Amino acid sequence: MSNTMRVLLAEDDRNLGNILKSYLEAKGFETTLCINGEEAFNAYKKENFDFCIVDVMMPVKDGFTLAKEIRSMDKKIPILFLTAKSLPEDKLKGFEVGGDDYLTKPFSMEELLARMKAITRRTDQNEKGEKDNFYTIGRYLFDFNRQILSFKGKEHKLTSKEADLLHLLCENKNDVLDRSYALNKIWFDDSYFNARSMDVYIAKLRKYLKNDPDVELLNVHGVGFKLIAK
After folding, report:
1. Residue 1 covered by a domain
2. Cβ atoms 79, 65 nearer than 8 A
3. Structural domains counted in the chain
4. H/E run at residue 91
C-alpha cells in the first residue's frame, strides 16, 4: 500500500477516533477524522480520499447512509465498516450498500491494518490486471479491469466485489463455479455469513444481466453457480 494513501475516518467515539487516527498516521496514512456522517460526507466532497473507514452507529447521519452516498459518487473507493454489533443482518446491510469489509469492535490495530491491506490488494489487482480482461456474456461486454458491464453501449459501473464475482463466473462460463472456492477467493473464508452475503451479490448480478434473455445465472443446489451464455 502506498504511504501517501489518504483515509477518511468517520467515528463518533472521539477517544477511539483519535487512537485510530494516530495509529494510521504512524503507519504513513494521511487521515481525516470526522465525528458524524454528515461531517464525513462534507469532507469527502471537498477532498480526494483513497480509503474510507466508517463507523455504523453515528449521530446526524449513520454509516450505512454515508456509505450509500459515497457509493453514489464513487463505485470503487474501498469502504470498511466498524461496528459494535456482529449481527448477520447488519453485516448484510453493510455489503448491500457497497461496503467491502466489516470489522466488529473491539478489534486490534493489526487486524484493522490487515483488512485494509487485503481490500486494497484486491482493488489494486483489479485496476492493474496483467492483461486486458474483456469478456463477452451474450450481448454484454464485461471489462474487468475497469469494472464496467456494458449492454448496447450503456455502461454500468460495478463495485469491487461485484466485479470479482462476475470475473470468476466468466472464467467458468457454462461450467459450475464452486461456492466454497468463490467465497475463499473473494471473501477469504466460506463462513455461513459470507455465503449469505455472496447470495446478495449473485442476486445483484442476475438483475444486471436480465436484459439478455439468453444469459442465465443459475444456482446449482449444494454446489455453486453457473453462468450460461454464448
Report:
1. no
2. no
3. 2
4. helix 88-96
